[in-house]
Amino acid sequence: MSTSATELMACSRVIPVVVLDDADAAVPLARALLAGGVPIMELTLRTPAALESIARVAEQVPDMLVGAGTITRPEQAAGAVAAGAGFLVSPGSPEPLVAAMLAAHVPVLPGVATATEALALLRHGVTEMKFFPAGPAGGLGYLEALAGPLPEISFCPTGGVDATNAVDYLALPNVACVGGSWLTPADLVRARRWDEISRLCLGAWSDEPPD
After folding, report:
1. E strand or H helix at 101, and its extent?
2. 53-86 per-position pLDDT tens digit
3. By the 8 A CB rule, do 23 and 126 touch?
4. DSSP-assigned letter for residue 179
5. Do 63 and 39 meet the contact criterion of CB atoms below 8 Å apart?
6. Strand order from edge to edge, sheet including 14-18
7. Nearest CA-CA partner of 183 in 170, 196, 164
8. Residue 21 and residue 140: Cα distance in Å, rounded?
9. Which residues are catalytic?
10. For residue 1, what pLDDT band results from cuts at 50, 70 and 90?
């Protein structure tokens, strides 16, 4: 599935951030998200099962845009794309990591926490960014302050974003979507309660945060 970073951020108000310990859960989880109207998922490279999970979703669930998150080393970018990742997300944006992500030729959401980091990414032509960790880095007030001097940037805040404040973030003019794990709680994934995950996703499309 080919897309741009702008299209990536527009395809869902919430990008589920998923940590999987068992690759066997990847495909049914992807299908549960689709059933709930969420066609995108970020599988983080925090476990040994991550790359295999990405590969299975990419092969077996073609309607799901699956990406790799927690890209922290340059070599991970190419490896994730080789496994089938359609986009890349990082928690930070040091120059070598940004270069490797851009060289992978898929949409990227490099992480920033300051105006200086955002300006550095603009030099690379990157206008879509992850704001992380959103809560500790200043939250709603900080993002609102950035909208004036940096109107060309669209952010996806993650880290401290959940069902209680997602709507507030989404109301900001420079926030295109948010990321978080509340649509795929670890206990529901472990218990294979796919219908409940679909229900949580359906709530994310309303004007109110899900229950």
Report:
1. helix 95-103
2. 999 999 999 999 999 999 999 999 999 999 999 9
3. no
4. E
5. yes
6. 108-109, 88-89, 65-69, 40-44, 14-18, 178-180
7. 196
8. 32
9. 42, 130
10. very low
